[in-house]
């Protein structure tokens, strides 16, 4: 276990630009034995081999870590998720192999499984959206079929994209078809633009997948949409079960308007604001029982907090952590 704060201990905080690069300066380990006693593990999944347009998301995890700032109390909620409520560890990157997405996916699934086996919530930094497959497979291996809250411009429910079944446009199709995601507890938020077509949309409707389009967010507001998503996901996973079943939160940063997140592979104008996404990520984490989360498709072009896409991705992760912390505090 390495503590990036050690040399700055007498000051109580470390400059963001100095020392070992971990998420928010939290301790770093690659040893599963060190995970005991922690609540949340940050994992990097730096691969972009399966993108259908501009690559670059392989640089996402490093850029998100570089855009992070020290822990501190969230001014709105007054909760210091990283510094006080939760024990957060950076478990490093999955050992991905360039141009070998099958091996990379297996490595990601193994690392996420290790974190879940130790009783932690994994938060995975992408990476293209194909990593949703190993991320949620690892969750379902432990918890059974998961509910899914999916923020994205696109549905990612293609059976194939350009004829390829392994793609960042197909993970949600495969996860539903394979029984990893329960389609009755699957909510999509922020859809817009010109893909997918009727074939994919009718496949979704037949399975009961619920969609909130960007025009729903525009017309009704993010508060109403999140209320409806939470209600849809609050149904028990199995008949007779108490309370909502396990939920995975998947955030494709391209759900944001390109004005807020220009660094992404398949940008689409007319998207969400950062303020709406940050609030929504926190509320979902506070109100639903998350077993894992991912923030994907961050394709940085700048260094540190000067990369605005990595910056908003980092703050999105922190809002998820704040929501998890609020939920823990309410249960104590
Ligand atoms: Mn996506």
Keywords:
eight-stranded parallel β-sheet; Arginase, Chain A; single chain; alpha/beta
Give an overview of the whole structure.
This protein has helices at about 60-65, 80-85, 100-115, 130-145, 170-175, 200-205, 215-220, 220-235, 275-285, 310-330; strands spanning about 40-45, 90-95, 120-125, 145-150, 180-190, 210-215, 245-250, 290-295. It has a single domain (about 5-330), classed as Arginase, Chain A. The mean pLDDT is about 95. The longest helix is centred in the last third of the chain and has 24 residues, at about 310-330. Helix 3 packs parallel to helix 4 (about 130-145) and helix 9 (about 275-285) runs parallel beside helix 10 (about 310-330). By secondary structure, the protein is an alpha/beta fold. The two termini are about 30 Å apart. Strand 5 (about 180-190), helix 6 (about 200-205) and strand 6 form a beta-alpha-beta unit. The chain has an eight-stranded parallel beta sheet with strand order 2-1-3-8-7-4-5-6, sandwiched between helices. Bound molecules: manganese (II) ion. The site of manganese (II) ion (MN) has 6 residues, from loops. Manganese (II) ion binds near residues 152, 154 and 156.
Helical amount = 25-40%
Total beta strands: 8
CATH class: Alpha Beta
**Number of helices, counting only DSSP H or I runs of 4 residues or more:** 10
Proportion in β-strands: 15-25%
Question: Rg, please?
Answer: 18 Å
Low-confidence spans: none
The run of helices and strands is EHHEHEHEHEHEHHEHEH
Q: Residue-averaged pLDDT, rounded? A: 96
Q: Identify the strand order in the major beta sheet.
A: 2-1-3-8-7-4-5-6
Distance between the termini: 28 Å
Q: What is the CATH fold-level name?
A: Arginase, Chain A
The class by helix and strand makeup works out as: alpha/beta
Q: What is the makeup of the main sheet?
A: 8 strands, parallel
């Amino acid at each position: 276990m390495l503590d990036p704060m050690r040399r700055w201990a007498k000051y109580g905080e470390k400059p963001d630009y100095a020392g070992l690069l971990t998420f928010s300066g939290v301790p770093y380990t690659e040893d599963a034995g060190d995970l005991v006693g922690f609540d949340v593990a940050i994992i990097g999944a730096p691969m972009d081999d399966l993108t259908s347009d501009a690559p670059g998301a392989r640089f996402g995890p490093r850029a998100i870590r570089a855009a992070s700032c020290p822990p501190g109390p969230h001014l709105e909620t007054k909760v210091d998720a990283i510094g006080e409520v939760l024990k957060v560890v950076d478990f490093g990157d999955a050992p991905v192999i360039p141009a070998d997405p099958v091996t990379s996916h297996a490595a990601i699934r193994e690392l996420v499984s290790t974190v879940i086996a130790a009783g932690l919530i994994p938060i995975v930094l992408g990476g293209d959206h194909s990593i949703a497959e190993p991320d949620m497979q690892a969750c379902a291996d432990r918890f059974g079929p998961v509910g899914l809250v999916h923020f994205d411009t696109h549905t990612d429910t293609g059976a194939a994209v350009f004829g390829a079944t392994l793609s960042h446009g197909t993970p949600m199709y495969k996860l539903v078809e394979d029984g990893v995601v329960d389609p009755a507890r699957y909510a999509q938020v922020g859809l817009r633009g010109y893909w997918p077509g009727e074939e994919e949309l009718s496949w979704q409707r037949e399975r009961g997948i619920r969609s909130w389009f960007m025009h729903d967010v525009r017309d009704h507001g993010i508060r109403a949409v999140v209320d409806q998503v939470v209600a849809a996901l609050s149904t028990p996973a199995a008949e007779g079960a108490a309370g909502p079943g396990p939920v995975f939160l998947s955030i494709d940063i391209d759900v944001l308007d390109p004005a807020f997140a220009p660094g992404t592979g398949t940008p689409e104008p007319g998207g969400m604001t950062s303020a709406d996404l940050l609030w929504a990520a926190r509320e979902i984490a506070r109100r639903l029982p998350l077993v894992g989360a991912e923030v994907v498709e961050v394709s940085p072009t700048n260094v540190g907090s000067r990369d605005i896409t990595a910056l908003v991705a980092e703050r999105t992760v922190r809002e998820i952590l704040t929501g998890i912390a609020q939920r823990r505090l309410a249960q104590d």
